[in-house]
Amino acid sequence: MPGGHHLDGQPLVQQLRGWARELGFSQIGIAGIDLATAEPGLQAWLAAGFHGGMSYMAAHGMKRSRPAELVPGTVSVISARMDYLPRGAAEGWVAAEQAALADPGRAVVSVYARGRDYHKVLRQRLQTLAERLQQAVGPRGHRVFTDSAPVLEVELATRAGLGWRGKHTLALARDAGSMFFLGELFVDLPLPADPPASAHCGRCSACMDICPTQAIVAPYRLDARRCISYLTIEHEGAIAPELRPLIGNRIYGCDDCQLACPWNRWAQRSPLADFDERAGLGQATLLALWAWSEADFLRLTEGSAIRRIGYGRWRRNLAVALGNAWRETGDAAIAQALHAAQAGADDVVAEHIAWALAQR
């Protein structure tokens, strides 16, 4: 065997951990591929329609819980965690984020989306990790995933010892909170599995209590159709009028459940410049972003996860937030900006502008 490693031994895994740290990952763990116990929960979630318009969630059926069906030959999954809190995040970053939410004129973009598109960052670095593994043990079958295929990421991460599933359904780690991305490397290499992480939410329900739309309908059960992250990113077309006031000034994603979680006092800053804030997205006002032309949007979101929602959905989200700000502040500049944009808007955005103007 090239590299002199036993396939079921720990030396190779220890090397993998070292390589992962060099590549900017905070932690990796190894999970097996028998996820049968996760299937009833997945089936119930789909049957309840909680996936909303994400038809791809149902289209793949139980393939999500069967790694060897997704990638034939898979016998182990390397699960990787990459912290994304920007390098320059202040000690009081949670209070600063909460203050932004309380300022109607501010535009709030989820922290994870203010830097480079995480899909690109993780995929590239996981591929490099796979190449180092191949150099050590010879050619092996593998595939890299980053929120890009029917993979039960949190389930695999918890089984690999990276954390536990919080009541908000995100992965939580005692030394990192939930401000991290997950990625996976499916390999046809038998590796020793790590022990799963134990849960530490206890009786806390802070994430459930804080959710503006009450999308966390029960512990560990999220109705995506009410989730602001889903509504502002995945959902196409009009946003239900009854949910619009609850969105506040959140224009891309929502961090409320994470900001409320006491474990995020230990959230870790990323060692990578990739997740540093771009285009002033941590401080921007709604009116400043509303002034972006489509060319501005494409230029300023180049390499960002935000770009994939497109200019129309971006404008729709901003119109909702401006309507909420108009209701709260009565700032004439908001009404003027909304009126000025009506003529050139597409049908969906025009309807949201009309709604916004009717808020006062």
Task: Summarize the SSE layout with pairings.
Elements: H1 10-22, E1 27-31, H2 39-47, H3 55-59, H4 67-70, E2 76-83, H5 93-101, E3 108-109, H6 118-137, E4 142-145, H7 153-159, E5 164-165, E6 171-172, E7 180-187, H8 206-210, E8 216-218, E9 221-222, H9 228-234, H10 244-247, E10 250-252, H11 256-260, H12 286-290, H13 294-300, H14 310-329, H15 332-341, H16 347-357
Parallel strand pairs: 3-10
Antiparallel strand pairs: 1-2, 2-7, 4-7, 5-6, 8-9
Helix pairs in contact: 1-6, 14-15, 14-16, 15-16
Description of the molecule:
There is one protein chain. The relative contact order is 0.15. The protein has 16 helices and 10 strands. The chain has helices at 10-22, 39-47, 55-59, 67-70, 93-101, 118-137, 153-159, 206-210, 228-234, 244-247, 256-260, 286-290, 294-300, 310-329, 332-341, 347-357, and strands at 27-31, 76-83, 108-109, 142-145, 164-165, 171-172, 180-187, 216-218, 221-222, 250-252. Strand 8 (216-218) and strand 9 form a beta hairpin. The N and C termini lie far apart (72 Å). Helix 14 packs parallel to helix 16. The chain is an alpha+beta fold and 360 residues long.
